[in-house]
Specification:
Length: 266
C-alpha cells in the first residue's frame, strides 16, 4: 500500500528538468518520468533552510543523470554541473560530489504536501528541490540545495565561467584569494562579466562595483546587507577582514578586464 501510494504521488508530480551539455539542450524530462526511472522513495534529511528534520519524496540524482546523458557515472564524475533554479540562481558543483555524495531531488514534502515555504520570500522549493539525506551534509557551502531546480548543465570544469578569473593576477595574491572566495560563495547569485547567477546584480559590467560604491560600503554590505535593505542576500558574519580585503582586491583586478558578450567592440 505504501509503495502504491509512493508511485501514485511520483506520477502526479508536475514540472520538468532540462538537461544540457556545455549549454546545449540534451533533453527535457518530466519530473514524473525521472521519479519513476530513478526510483522515488521517502528520504529524511536535516534541512538547513527549514531548520528542522524533514521527510521528502525524492529520487536519487545519480541514476537520473546517467540516464539523461546516456553516459556512465565515471564519465560524469569528471564533469562539473551547473544547477540552475527558475529565478536564475546558479550553483556550480563537482560531478564527483553530485554523483557520489548521495544527492536526491525532492518532488514532494511528506510532512506538508506541496512543500512548506522556505526562505525570506516564503516560496515553495518545489517542484524540484536538491537535498542531501541524513545529518552530515547540511553545510550549504559544500552541499548546496538549490530549490525550484529547472536545468542541469554538464560542463567542462576548466571552462566554467572563464571570464570571471583575473588573468593578470598571480597565484597566491589577494586578488586570487578573493576570486576563490567569490567562486565559492557569491557566484551562485552574482555574475562577473555576465557569467554566474542572476539573482543578484552583475558586479563588473558595464561598470565594476568598485567604480561606483565606496570600499567601506562594499565591505559593510557584504558583511550584513540587511542593514542597508531587505533582500535575499544572506549576511556573512564569518568573513574576516582579510577575506574582505581579498574580495575587494578581486573586484579591483577584474575591473581591469571587463567582458560583455552583448556589447560589440567599436
Amino acid at each position: 500500500m505504501v509503495l502504491l501510494a509512493s508511485c501514485s504521488r511520483a506520477s502526479n508530480v508536475q514540472g520538468a528538468i532540462t538537461f544540457k551539455r556545455d549549454g546545449r539542450v540534451v533533453r527535457s524530462v518530466p519530473l514524473a518520468e525521472l521519479a519513476l526511472l530513478a526510483g522515488a522513495r521517502a528520504v529524511e534529511t536535516a534541512d538547513p533552510y527549514y531548520g528542522a528534520y524533514k521527510r521528502f519524496q525524492a529520487f536519487p540524482i545519480a541514476p537520473a543523470l546517467t540516464w539523461a546523458y546516456d553516459a556512465k557515472a565515471g564519465e560524469l564524475r569528471g564533469r562539473a554541473f551547473l544547477l540552475t533554479a527558475s529565478d536564475g540562481y546558479a550553483v556550480p558543483i563537482e560531478g564527483a560530489r553530485l554523483l557520489e555524495d548521495g544527492a536526491f531531488v525532492a518532488i514532494d514534502d511528506l510532512d506538508v504536501p506541496g512543500f512548506a515555504p522556505i526562505g525570506p520570500q516564503k516560496v515553495a522549493p518545489g517542484p524540484a528541490y536538491l537535498i542531501w539525506p541524513g545529518t552530515a551534509r547540511n553545510n550549504l557551502e559544500t552541499h548546496p540545495r538549490p530549490w525550484q531546480l529547472v536545468s542541469i548543465d554538464a560542463v567542462d570544469p576548466l571552462t566554467l565561467y572563464p571570464h570571471t578569473r583575473p588573468k593578470a593576477a598571480a597565484p597566491g595574491t589577494p586578488a586570487m584569494r578573493g576570486f576563490a572566495l567569490f567562486r565559492g560563495r557569491c557566484i551562485r547569485c552574482h555574475a562577473i562579466n555576465r557569467e554566474g547567477g542572476k539573482v543578484g546584480p552583475e558586479l563588473n559590467v558595464p561598470q565594476s562595483i568598485v567604480a561606483y560604491r565606496p570600499e567601506p560600503q562594499i565591505r559593510a554590505y557584504i558583511k550584513n546587507p540587511l542593514t542597508f535593505r531587505y533582500s535575499v542576500m544572506p549576511p556573512s558574519p564569518d568573513l574576516t577582514e582579510a577575506d574582505l580585503d581579498a574580495l575587494i582586491a578581486y573586484f579591483q583586478a577584474i575591473a581591469q578586464e571587463p567582458y560583455d558578450p552583448a556589447v560589440k567592440p567599436p
